[in-house]
Amino acid sequence: MDFYSLLEKTTRLQITILDTIYHSNKIWSIEQLAEFTACDKRSVQNYCEQVRTLSISDQFRKEGRNYLFLGTNSDFQELILSILKRSPIFHLLKNLCLDSKVTIAEFSEDNNISESILRRHITRINQILKKYQLQIKTKKGEMYFKGSEMQIRYLIYLILWPSYRSVEWPFASIEFHQLFSEVEDSFAIVHQKPNKIKMIEWSFILAVTYLRSQQGHVIPAKELPDFSLDLWNGFEKMAEELTTNYKRMRFSLTDSMFLFL
């Protein structure tokens, strides 16, 4: 699932325009972008200008009626995050990822969005999440993700990793370098040495596991694939070392098995 589909239309289109120009590595005219996005030219120009104002070092440039991107992949990721940070719906999803529950009234006030509009967005998002057996549940003035724990964790990963990657560390309560060291130890146990980006990605996965575990959300054994226990027992020595490693983070056995998969 592309989590950008959960965002409001304005944000989706800004990201689509930036992503299209960056990955094509060529200049695009307003007319071409309007045709590609199925939007009118005035709207496309407004979206482009909004993106350009966020491009601090002028990587997203305008030349006449054309636009191009001259930055690096890091510049591209930083600009994506800058666009997302202006989106109330991204902040909704991010808060739901990082907090077990979010207060509707408090979120609406903090993000200058009415509760009625917020609820309309939640209804729209839930229509997309329904096929994954997930939803944003609202109850007693609070919001939270509802579904199987494995699906919720995967959704959190799909939201946070593409948004932040190696640009920012979104887990304020978790020390990155300490967690990165845990990831290095885990890969050493299974005799693998991935590149740094993959290690950072696994740091995100480990952070999501730790965060949900600390919030009291543990993966039930029945949610794991049927072969999980046999696989875990088949790598007995590695499994024991990983269990010892993950005990420092107070992971349950099912959390450790889930990460091993």
Question: How would you describe this protein?
Answer:
- With 261 residues, the chain is mainly α.
- It has three domains: 3-84, Winged helix-like DNA-binding domain superfamily/Winged helix DNA-binding domain (Arc Repressor Mutant, subunit A, Orthogonal Bundle); 88-148, Winged helix-like DNA-binding domain superfamily/Winged helix DNA-binding domain (Arc Repressor Mutant, subunit A, Orthogonal Bundle), CATH 1.10.10; 171-260.
- It has 13 helices and six strands.
- The chain has helices at residues 9-24, 30-37, 41-54, 73-84, 88-98, 104-110, 115-129, 149-164, 176-189, 196-214, 228-234, 236-247, 253-260, and strands at 28-29, 60-63, 66-69, 102-103, 135-139, 142-146.
- Strands 1-3-2 form a three-stranded antiparallel beta sheet. A three-stranded antiparallel beta sheet has the order 4-6-5.
- β2 (60-63) and β3 form a beta hairpin.
- α5 packs across α8 and α9 (176-189) packs across α10.
- The longest helix is centred in the C-terminal third of the chain and has 19 residues, at 196-214.
- It starts with 8 loop residues before the first helix and ends with a helix.
Major sheet description: 3 strands, antiparallel
Q: Could you give the order of strands across the largest sheet?
A: 1-3-2
**Proportion of helical residues:** 55-70%
Query: Roughly what is the average pLDDT, rounded to an integer?
Result: 88
Q: What is the CA-CA span between the terminal residues?
A: 20 Å
Q: Per DSSP, what share of the residues sits in E-state strands of 2 or more residues? A: 5-15%
Secondary structure class reads mainly alpha
What is the helix tally?
13
How many strands?
A: 6
Number of domains: 3
Specify Rg, calculated over alpha carbons.
21 Å
- Shape assignment: globular
Q: Which runs of at least 5 residues are low in confidence (pLDDT < 50)?
A: none
Report the order of strands and helices.
HEHHEEHHEHHEEHHHHHH
Pfam families: Mga
Protein name: Mga helix-turn-helix domain-containing protein
Domain Mga helix-turn-helix: 73-158
InterPro entries: BglG_antiterminators, Mga_HTH, WH-like_DNA-bd_sf
